[in-house]
Structure formats: C-alpha cells, structure tokens
Design goal:
SdpA family antimicrobial peptide system protein; single chain; 4 helices; Sporulation_SdpA; alpha+beta
C-alpha cells in the first residue's frame, strides 16, 4: 500500500523593502568623507592642502581619533647607522641587513635585529667623537680622516658583531627631488671610528 504525501508549497512572499532616501545616503557619505579628510590632514605633515579651520580640528582629532602612524612606519627621512669593520687593510660593511636575505634564514635568524641594538649601545657610550664627511667624497676617505679620533670602547652585547677596529657611519637618504643627481640612495654625514673590545 503506497502512501503519498503532497507538500503544499505556498507562494513566496515578496521581500519587504525599507525605502532609504537618497539625499540621506549622499549627506552621510559626504559628512563622513569630510570628517575622515580632516582627521587625516591633522596628522599628516605640512603639505599643499589647507582646509578651513584645520588648526582647530587638530586638537579635537587628537582626542577623538588619535593616530599613531609612527608605530607602523619609520620616517623615510630618518638617518641610518651603518656599521663597518676594518679588514685586510680596507673598510667593509658589517651590516647583517636586510633581514630577509638568505644568510639570515630569510628573516628567521634575529641576529640582524639585535645588531641595531648593539650599535645603539655603542653610540651611547661616553666620549664618542664624530668626524664630518664631505658629501662629494667617498665614504672610505671619510673613514680614513676619522682614524685620528679613534677611541676605545667595550662592546657589552652578548653576541657582538663589531669587534676590533670598527666604525659607524650616519647615513642620510638622498632627497627624492635629487634622486637623479646621485647614484647612491644614502650619503654619509659623519662617522665615528673605534677600537672595540669584545668580552
């Protein structure tokens, strides 16, 4: 004996639509765009854009929507400190960066990160003497001139990378507007030469 069941399929109900007036959407979009523009402009360096009431908006934006962009990025205009070693009668780079290269196991070896801390500790020692560099002369000449002001330091880093005759050069990036005038991306401003004793 067969039992057949028939299902009643009720017709689909049309979806309810809530009418949203287009002027409201346009006004909200325009309002949030202006707010975002003021907040962004308050935290950007001085530029060609100037909004009405921008100076007063900065104090409000700092309280309402504080942005710590420096946490995520480093300023491209900040100087870099490049380490060098004197080996076989010439100066050679002792930098372990970039962090992603094969010798650093593509970033898994953290020695390149600790080298920056090591350099910072050496630079904060007392009696550091800097020698100004001529931007038109090669870095090697500047290091040779700085040899007269060599001082002795002790490297307190647990895994030192700078031992013996070493130096640090303060390198400044070439401004973007002058990038075609120099083949280098950075120019030396000053150097410090040391005799580093490692434990």
């Amino acid at each position: 004996m067969r039992i057949s069941r028939r299902l009643r399929i009720s017709p689909a109900r049309p979806a309810r639509r809530v009418p949203v007036p287009r002027p409201w959407v346009t006004a909200l979009t325009a309002g949030w765009t202006v707010v975002a523009l003021y907040v962004a402009q308050s935290f950007l360096p001085h530029n060609v854009i100037s909004l009405p009431g921008q100076d007063g908006a900065r104090s409000v934006a700092t309280v309402v929507a504080p942005q710590g962009w420096a946490f995520f990025t480093k300023s491209a205009t900040d100087p870099q400190y490049a380490p060098y070693r004197f080996l076989d009668g010439q100066w050679e780079s002792a930098s372990l960066t970039p962090h992603s290269r094969a010798s650093n196991t593509f970033g898994f070896d953290r020695a390149s990160r600790s080298q920056g801390i090591e350099i910072a500790l050496l630079l904060h020692e007392e009696g550091i003497k800097w020698t100004r560099c001529d931007t038109s002369a090669p870095l090697g000449e500047c290091l040779e001139r700085a040899a007269d002001q060599t001082i002795a330091l002790t490297n307190s880093s647990p895994s030192p990378t700078l031992c013996g005759r070493a130096a640090v050069a303060e390198m400044h990036p070439v401004p973007w507007a002058w990038r075609h005038l120099s083949p280098d991306q950075h120019t030396p401003k000053r150097v410090a030469v040391w005799n580093v004793k490692c434990p």
